[in-house]
Amino acid sequence: MLMVVLRRLVLAICLMGLAAPAWSIAVDTPLDDPVLEARAHAIHKQLRCLVCQNQSIEDSNATLARDLRMLVRERITAGDSDDAAIRFIVVRYGDWVLLRPPVKSGTVLLWFGPALLLILAIIWLVISYRRRRPPLVASTAPLSADEQARLKALLGDGGPT
Amino acid sequence: MNEPSLEPKPRRIWLRLLPLAVAMIIGVFLFVGLSLRPKEIPSVLIGKAVPEFDLPALPDRPKGLKTADLKGQVSLVNVFASWCVSCRAEHPLFMKLKAQGDVPVHGLNYKDEGPAAMAWLTRYGDPYDRVGHDLKGRVGIDWGVYGVPETFLINAEGRIVCKHIGPIMERDLEEKLLPAIKTLRQGGVAQC
Amino acid sequence: MTAELGHYALVLALSVALVQATLPLLGAWRGDPGWIGLARPAALVQCLLIVAAFAALMYAYVTSDFSVLNVATNSHSAKPMLYKIAGVWGNHEGSLLLWLLILALFGAAVAVFGGNLPAPFRARVLAVQAMIGVGFLAFVLFTSNPFVRLLPAPLDGRGLNPLLQDPGLAFHPPFLYLGYVGFSMAFSFAVAALIEGRVDAAWARWVRPWTLAAWCFLTLGIAMGAWWAYYELGWGGWWFWDPVENASFMPWLAGTALLHSTIVVEKRDSLKNWTVLLAIVTFSLSLLGTFLVRSGVLTSVHAFATDPTRGVFILAFLIAVIGGSLTLYAVRAPAMKGGGLFAPVSREGGLVLNNLLLSTACATVLLGTLYPLFLDALTGEKITVGPPYFNATFGPLMVPALIAMAVGPMLRWKRGDLLGAVQRLKFAVIATVLALLATLVAAHDGPWLAIPGIALGVWMIAASVEEAAYRLRLFRVPVGESARRLMRSPRSAWGTTFAHAGAGMVIIGIVASSAWQVEKLQVMRQGESLAMGPYEIKFQGAEPIDGPNYSAVRGVFRVSRNGAEIAVLEPESRNYQDPPMETTEAAIRTGWGGDLYAVIGDPTGDGSWSTRFYNKPMIHWIWIGCLMMVFGGLVSLSDRRHRVGAPARRDVPVKAAKTAASMAGK
Question: Can you give the pTM of this predicted structure?
C-alpha cells in the first residue's frame, strides 16, 4: 500500500488541483525548434513541481507545472542558457525546486556520505578480515613445487604427468 | 591452531552498539520530523524588494496593482481567486481588517477570469484597496506563489517581510501578522 | 452487526497475541513443554480471529454498508465489485488490517509447516511474531479502527480514488505487504536465534525459504507498482525515487543482501553475526516505510494521517521493536562469531562484495530519502533530493555489484580463481564485446552512457547462461550426461541463473527505454498527422464516452508504418464523479521492439487537443526481467533442501570439530 497511499494523495492534489483554477489557460504548446524543445525538456526534468510532491514539472498535470513548463520555453526562446533558465525559477522559488540539490555546506554529507560509507565499510571489512587471517595464512600458503611433488607422491596421484 | 584465537576480543563493544545508536539517532530525527511541515516551502523573497510588476485592475473596478503602490506604508498582499475554496475561509478576516481600517490589504487575483472574480467579490465582499488582475499567473510566479491563498506582509520600503501560505486563521492574524505590523509601524524590524 | 463482530474478533486476537507473545517465551526459557506447546494453537487461533475481522470488513465493503465510517469514506455503491473488494485495503485502516492479516498468516504458516523446527525455537519465533502482532493490533484498535460506525448512515459513499480503480493497483498492495510482512519472519527467526544465542547452518536453512518468499512477493509488488505508474500516470515514467517508492525499495535492497548472506551462513557457517543484523535491519526498514507513509513526515500531505497520535504511536512501536532487537543484538552478537574462513577471492568473498555494495546502496537510498528531514530539523533549510541525486550515487554503487554478479557463481567456495572464472566465461566476454561494438555502431550519436549500459546487461545475461552451461558441462560431455546433470543440479542454482539473467534484462530495459526514448508533444486537430520515428500517427478525432462511474473523452489515433496501419490507439481522459477527479488512461501498443504510448490531454477550446506520444524501446524488458527474477526466486524456493529439508541441528561439538577439521585440512 505504501506506494499507493501517498501516490493517491499526491495525485489527488495534482490532478484535482487543490489550488488550481478549474479551467486551464495554457495547453502545453511545444516549441517549433526541436533543439530548443529538447533543451526545455531537459530543464523540466530538473525542476520539482511545487504543488505535488516529488515529481518534476515534466511529469505533472498540475496547472502551475504547466505554467512553469511554458515559462521555461519562453526563457530559452528568449536566449537564456539552461543555467539561466533554471536560475530564473530558483530566484523565485528557492533551491527547493532543484531535484538535484546543489553542493553546499548543508548538503556535503548528502553528496559525500555514500562514498564515505563505502570507504568505511571497506576499511572495516579489511580490518576484520586481517584479524581472522593470520592462522589462515599459515595454513593456506601456496605449496612450493617441492611440497606439491611430495604431496602428489604421498597421495599416490601422478597428476597430469 | 586453537579456535579461541579466532574469536574477536569483546573490546569492540562500540561496534556492536553502532546499529542501535544509528537507529536511535534516526528515531530522534523522525520524532522531530513529526512536528515539521515539509510541505511549506519558505519564500526566498523574504527581505527582498517586491518584484517589478504592473497589473491591470479587474473589470469595472478601479485601481490595479503595481510595484510602486507597495511603497510608503506597511501593507498586506493577499493572493486569491474565485476558484479557490479555502480563500472563502479567510475572507471574513480580511473584511474585518478592512472595517478596522488599520492596514491596507491589496489583492492579487491569480489566474482568474475577470467577471468570475468580480462576482466573487460582490458575493463575499470586497476587502481590498487595490486588486491586480493576474490572468496568466505570470506575476504570481514572480512572487513565488505556488498555492492559493497566500498572504505577504510588505514593509514601508516595499520589501517582503513575511509570507503566509494557506488560509489565514484568526490566530495567525492575532499572534503573527498584527504584532509584526505594529513593530514595523514603530520602525522596528519584524519577523514572522 | 458484522462490523461489531469484526471489532470483537480483533480484541480477542489482541488478547491471544498477548498470550502468544509471553507464555511460550517463558516456557522455552524454563523448559516447560506445556507453555512451549501454547505457541502453535495460539498462532492458529490468532490467525483465525484476524481472518474473521478481515472478512467482516470485506463483507461491509461488498454489501456497501455505509453505516461503517470506513466504507462510507472509501467506497461507493456504483463501483465495480473488484474495486469494492480492493477498496478494503485502499485506505489507512483497511490496509493496516491487511498488514495484520498477512502477519497472522505467516505466523500460522510457521505453526503449520514448522514441524522441522525444534519446539522451543519455534515457540520463540512465534512469540516474537506475536509481539509484532500485539503492536499492530493495538495500533489498529486504539488509533485506526476500521469498524467505527457512522450513524445515521449516508445514502452513498464518497468513493475510492479513481487512480486506484485499476486492476494493476488492486493487487499491488497485497503483494507489497506479503513482501514487507514476509520479512517479519526473518526478523522473528533472527531475534529467536539471538535469544537462544545460536546461529548455525540449520538456522540459515530455516530462514532462507521465508526470506526468499518475501523477496519474491516484494519484487512482484514493486514491479506492479512501477508498471501501474507507467500506464496510469500518463507520463511514461515508472520510477520517480520518491520517498514512498524508496520506502519499498530499501527493504528490497536489504532483503536481497540478506538472501545472499544466508547462503554463506548455510554453506560455510560464516557471516552469522552480519546476517542476523541484516535480518533485523530488513524488517526495520519495512517498518520505517510504514511510518514514513503514514506519518506524513516526508511528504506532509496530511490527509492520510490527520491524527498526529498515529505518527507518535507507530514511532514508539518502531523504536520499541528496532531498539529492542538491536539491543539484544549488541548483547548477544559476540556469541555468534567464528565459522569457516575464506580467501577474499572466493564464492564467499563474492557474496561479501554483494552485501557490501547492496548495503551501501541501501544506506544511500536511506540517506537521500531522510536527508531533507535531517536538514530541516537541524537548520530549517528545505531542500529536495530527487532522481538526479539517486542516479548519481546509487547508480555507480550498483555497477560493480552487477559486474561482479556474473562472476560470483563461477567462483569456488573458500578460495576461488578469478582469472579462471573469467576464462570460463569467455563466450560471455565475447558476447559483451560484440554488444558493445554493435551498440556503438547502431547508436553512436546517442547518450554514450547507454553503450556500456547495454553491454552490462548483455554481460549479466550471457554470463548467467554460460554459467548454467558450464554447470551442465554442455558440449563438453555427451548430451545424455548434460541432460542427467540438468535433472540433478540443484534448483537453487537454477534460481540464481534466472534471477541474475532477469536482472540483466531489467538493466537493458532501463538503459534502452531511457536512452532512446522518443517523445512528441503536439497540439493536434482532427485529421492531422505527425511522424514519430518510423511511425505515422493520425488523429481521427475525439469522442465522448460513458463508463460505469465516469465520463470520458476518447481520442482515436491510427498508427501506420510504411503506409500500412499497425494499430489504433485509443487513449482516454476520464472524469470521475465520486470523488471528482480527472485521470488519464494512456493507450499503449506493445510490440517486439518496445512500446508506443499515447495520451490525450486537454482541448484547447478551438477544436484541437493537446497530445503526447512516447516511443519507448525495450521497456517491456523491465517487466519481463522482473518476472524472471521472481521466477528465479520461486525455482530456488522449490529447491529440494527446502522441501525435504528437515535439517537436524548438528551438535555444537560436531560443528566445532568440523570447522577445525576444515581449516586443518588446508
Answer: 0.88
